[in-house]
Amino acid sequence: MQNQTKRMMVLWLVPLVLILGGETYGSRPSISIDVCSDHQVQLVLEAVNHISDDLVPLVVPDKAGAARAVCVIFTSSKEDKNLLLMDIQQSEEEKFCGFREVIDLLSSSQKPIVSYNCLNDLTMMHSKFVAPLPPNMHEFMCSLKMVFSSVVDVSHLWRQIGPLRKAKNIQAALSYLQRQYFVPMEIKIPEQDDTSGVTKNEQNVLRITKLFAKLSNLLKIGPECQLQSDSAEVVSTENIVFLWGFRGKSVKELKSYLPGLHQIFSEDFEVKLLDKTCSALLFRNSGTAMQLLKEISSESPSLNNFFSEGLKAAGFEVYRKVCRLGLWDSELAEALEHVSAEVAASTLSECNSSQIYWNSSLMLDLKEYLEC
To answer: Tens digits of per-residue pLDDT, 255-268?
Structure first.
């Protein structure tokens, strides 16, 4: 069956050359044969080799690197064919040198390399542009370390967040983060269609970038791609209050500012900034946060100074609902404002208590919910 297919290709390729002889490769006549699989590429290459020694097939890749056509170039003699092959080889060597320069530039910059399931890519890159692959993984890692000082694989990075350990792909990880965490950053990923001009590879790069940005925010990854080593304590969500309307005050300013507004802030509490519009307060004494929220919901006169300053607050249930609704297009204060009106005061005593990680760094570290 395969031999019959080859013979048929030989029969239609010759008249096709006569009909479509207007195409050129440099100064030589040529034709392009569209292909949609590697199998078709092999059939065309074998058929061309059966027709004449004066034909030179050249696989033409698309933007993603997959074969989209085979360009069949016509040469006038053996000498002309050799010249063409030399030109093609020189062009390939120039591409190789160009990519090698990119690797050298990345290596000298000492910047982290961020990828997804990158072992196959790195072994291919090492074998083609660095040196033959070492005999074992340890030597390979040592050799790679000399080229790239830091390599971050997001598929390993997201396993730092407990529930994400079973995520199978980038989209699954992004969907989970979208549902469970408020991360005030978004990267628009255009659809892949005929009008956008975006390739699948470009979409994947944007997804990896978006995922890495969100994970870096949640896991407090520094510029050198190092996870912070600060230990985190488990705290009850009943002791947390989300505060906004403080007009850009810093943590230090809030700590000194709030006690003058109400005696409840004389209690032992910590402040963490979540973004420029919202902070989280952790009260060490059990019941203090609930008392504050009840007084706010009843508009207690004792909080007149609090209200007059434009401050607003909500409990963890409001934040949880913001996460579940996926209100990612606004700042956290705006999202809390929108949802807090829907959570009635009667639900304050019915909130489901859970536990989260409270990290000693600048932000609240919501690695996972630990339901009681």
So the answer is: 888 998 988 888 88
What is the assigned CATH class of domain 110-229? alpha beta
Residue-wise pLDDT for 170-229, tens only, equals: 888 888 887 777 676 677 777 766 666 677 778 888 888 888 888 887 777 766 666 555
Q: Any residues with CB less than 8 A from the CB of 236 and at least 6 apart, and which?
A: 286, 353, 354, 355
Where in the chain are the domains? Answer: 2-74, 110-229, 233-371
**Dist. CA 324–CA 327, nearest whole Å:** 8
Q: What is the pLDDT of residues 336-362, one digit of tens each?
A: 888 877 654 434 444 566 777 676 554
Please give the single-letter amino acid code of residue 338: H
Whether the model clears a pTM of 0.90, i.e. scores above it, the answer is no
